[in-house]
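Extended Data, record HTH tetR-type domain-containing protein
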Amino acid sequence: MHEKKKRIIEVGLKLFAKKGFHATSIQEIAEQSEVSKGAFYLHFKSKGDLILSIYEYFYEKISSNIEKVDLEEGLLPRERVEKQLQDYCKEFQQHKDFFVMLMRENISLNDDIDSIASTIRSGQLTWLQRSIHSLYGEQVQPFVNDAVLIFYGMIHAYLQKLIFEQITYNLGEFSSFLLRRLDDLVEGLMNDHSAPLLTIKETDNSIELSLFPHSKREEAKAVLRRIENKLNEIELIESKKDEVLQSINVMQDELEKEEPQKVVFQGMLVHLKSVNQLESYRNEISNLFHLQLL
């Protein structure tokens, strides 16, 4: 990264955390970065663009810290993961005022932040997947999908308390505590005889979590067939029956896709809402894929 751009990002991060987004001017950022206002616009289109760059910079720094620990020699897998967790949480603790500001102020970043957040999240999940494999070996493979997501949620639930409730953790004790809870989690998953809930698709060294595992898809297909049978038992006007059948067909087609879309199911289930006799089936499908009924 260009040194001048890096300096603007670091100054912007500090000023936004201290004064807030709206109270900080571009002129002020430029002056404290020791660049002209014109030089600021050479690197950033707006303050919102700077916020996005800060977000990326923050997570690039975290990724760099993780990679540095990976390159350290002589560390046992548990020592390595514990140190990475400690460094990961330390960055959030040091910059918690910035994240409080992001939540407090109404900053319009459109869809850009969602795209960046999705990329970052994939990288974090890949790191956790790799870490879990290094700690527990191949025996964890059937359960790694669920372990990754639950552990990710556990970490960030505690980080939210650190950031938004101003709770202070001893990071050494905290990372050790998280690993012990991961031990409990993995042991529970490996002793559970239920089928895994989530699947992981690997693409370009990243992972995406799917809420449509094949076991759940087969259950959903069975529910859709029961709806078709139910339609033959109840009295409906032809247009309403056609609407329901069309919705069933759309959902059946969606289940055959590599990655079905939740929004499609939510939309199709709306068409079943007006038929009281189908409400239980509607609930079954929503529960299978954790959908919010509209």
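Summary. Confidence is low (pLDDT under 50) at residues 202-207.
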